[in-house]
Amino acid sequence: MTRFTLHGIFASGPTYKVGLMLNLTGTPYDYEHVDLRSGAHKADAFLAKNRYGQVPVLEDREKDECLCQSSVILDFLADETGKFGGKDRSTRLRAREWQFWGAGALTTGIYRSRAVKLGFFKFPEQVVEANFQMGLNAVKELNTLLDGRDWLVGAGPTIADVDIYGIAAYAPQAGMDLSVYPAVRKWMKRMEALPGFKDVDTCLPQKSVKA
Question: May I ask the CATH architecture of the domain 89-192?
Answer without folding.
Answer: Up-down Bundle (1.20)
